[in-house]
Amino acid sequence: MKKSDLPRKDCAACGRPFTWRKRWARCWDEVRWCSERCRRSARARKP
């Protein structure tokens, strides 16, 4: 399967698009961030 055929989402923290990864196969609907760094920065901004 080509990478261009995989599902995509926009990161909740930085807004950049990211594609599906095999490790997210079971929880793709719950994935909101493109990386651990974005997840941490989004939580740090929250009051």
β-sheet strand percentage = 5-15%
Order of helices and strands: EEH
Q: Please report the distance between the alpha carbons of the first and last residues.
A: 41 Å
Major sheet, described briefly?
A: 2 strands, antiparallel
Mean pLDDT: 90
**What's the count of strands?**
2
Blueprint of the fold:
Elements: E1 8-10, E2 17-19, H1 36-45
Antiparallel strand pairs: 1-2
Protein name: DUF2256 domain-containing protein
InterPro entries: UCP037205 (IPR017136)
Pfam family, one: DUF2256
In short:
The chain has one helix at 36-45; strands at residues 8-10, 17-19. The chain is α+β, with helices and mostly antiparallel strands and 47 residues long. The model has no long low-confidence stretch (mean pLDDT 90).
Structure, explained:
The chain is α+β, with helices and mostly antiparallel strands and 47 residues long. It has one domain. It is 21% helix and 13% strand. It has a two-stranded antiparallel ribbon with strand order 1-2. The longest helix is centred in the C-terminal third of the chain and has 10 residues.
Give the key terms:
47 residues; 1 helix; UCP037205; DUF2256 domain-containing protein
